[in-house]
TrEMBL record:
Residues 2-90 form the DUF6881 domain. InterPro entries: DUF6881 (IPR049248). It comes from Neobacillus ginsengisoli. This is DUF6881 domain-containing protein.
Length: 94
């Protein structure tokens, strides 16, 4: 698994500003958290979709490809960091 944290720099009110994903060996998202400017949290896993957050049906681009677009600032995070975000933001809601 790979874990990525992407800051999305934009001025759109209805879109998240942070995207945090767990990606499998084939680059498909397994779990995802989206954080909005107003503090709302969206998430997705398996067939669960909350706040419009969905798992991509296409393999995730590489970090280099994502970072080639200046509106995105991606970085790899550890599993422990991902689990901390998941446990603090998603687990209380499920």
């Amino acid at each position: 698994m790979e874990y990525i944290y992407v800051e999305w720099i934009h001025n759109f009110i209805d879109d998240p500003v942070i995207l945090i994903s767990e990606i499998d060996e084939n680059r498909f998202e397994k779990r995802k958290i989206e954080i909005y400017k107003n503090g709302k949290i969206g998430f997705a896993y398996n067939n669960v979709k909350v706040m419009g957050t969905r798992l991509s049906t296409e393999p995730m681009s590489s970090l280099n490809d994502i970072s080639s677009d200046s509106q995105f600032s991606p970085k790899v995070i550890t599993k422990d960091v991902f689990e901390k975000y998941w446990n603090e933001n998603v687990v209380p809601l499920i």
